[in-house]
Specification:
two-stranded antiparallel sheet; globular; eleven-stranded mixed beta sheet; 7 helices
Length: 301
């Protein structure tokens, strides 16, 4: 069987972080968070990595990754741009990208095997990659048997501001029954709360299982997602801030019983950068992992 592919969502602007966090470095050897994800992916058995980026950062990415990954894993680049949509929906007022599910659609022509998708700025840990590879290798590529890595909300919060997370409902067999994208979750007065559609602050349990955009899909995902994106644009193409998120697609598939999604548990620690202030913590955690021998001092020769 073909080795699974790792698709990396790396087209973000990093407005809250204040720059291109995808290529920001967090160690004395100049490692990005992405370096660790790709290193773990190679070790776990992925055969190809697809970077979804903007054309304006293509040269930066190729300079940073092509040489170090040569001979280790196949590399492809695809682009998410605001105007990568059908002509009839183009709106010149649009300033921000169309969201993660739109980004993922950009990879459909280069991904023909089972694949995982991750964020560029999240550190997921080796164990998570090992678990999802097992699931991808056992899934029939013509099925809609999907999977995702589940994380506990309290372990994914920034101390420096709000975050976006997919709030998951899971049945007793460990399968997803629904997911809602919460675009603003924040710790306020020691309690976690999210802002709902009416702009109310609503408490949310710190033990809630959340998605960190680490999903395992078969190529069948693209067929359904493309159709849903067309429907989304019909309703939202004049809305300057409307975004087409992967959890929206996943929720549609699950609620309508088109797909199943097993929620995989991982002992790996998640951490990531949303704000510039997160950098010091991530840098210290990476240093600890190297000191413990979980990663070599220098990832790439």
């Amino acid at each position: 069987m073909n080795k699974p592919t790792l698709v990396i969502l790396a087209a973000g602007i990093g407005s809250r972080y204040g720059g291109l966090k995808q290529l920001d470095t967090f160690s004395e050897h100049g490692d990005t968070i992405l370096d660790f994800s790709i290193y773990d992916a190679v070790q776990a058995g992925f055969g190809k990595v697809v970077f979804i980026i903007r054309e304006s950062i293509e040269e930066d990415f190729k300079l940073f990754f092509n040489k170090k990954l040569e001979g280790l894993i196949e590399v492809e680049y695809v682009f998410q741009e605001i105007d990568n949509i059908p002509d009839k929906f183009r709106d010149n007022d649009r300033k921000k990208p169309w969201g993660t599910a739109h980004a993922l659609l950009m990879a459909k022509d280069v991904v023909n095997e089972n694949f995982a998708v991750i964020n560029a700025d999240d550190f997921y840990g080796r164990d998570a990659f090992v678990e999802i590879v097992k699931s991808l290798k056992s899934a029939d590529k013509n099925s809609c048997a999907f999977s995702m890595m589940g994380y506990i909300l309290k372990n994914t919060i920034s101390d420096f501001g709000f975050v976006s997370r997919g709030e998951c409902s899971v049945d007793e067999k460990g399968f997803l029954t629904g997911v809602v994208e919460r675009t603003h979750i924040e710790k306020i007065g020691g309690e976690l709360k999210f802002i709902d559609d009416e702009q109310n602050l609503v408490p949310i349990s710190e033990d809630t299982i959340v998605s960190m955009n680490f999903f395992g899909f078969t190529p069948k995902y693209f067929e359904v997602s493309e159709m849903l994106f067309e429907n989304f644009l019909e309703a939202n193409y004049k809305e300057p801030k409307a975004e087409f998120f992967i959890p929206l697609v996943v929720n549609h598939l699950i609620v309508n019983k088109i797909a199943t999604m097993e929620v995989l548990k991982s002992n790996a620690r998640w951490f990531g950068v949303t704000y510039k202030e997160d950098k010091a913590y991530v840098t210290s955690e990476i240093k600890k992992l190297k000191e413990l021998g979980i990663y070599p001092s220098k990832l790439w020769n």
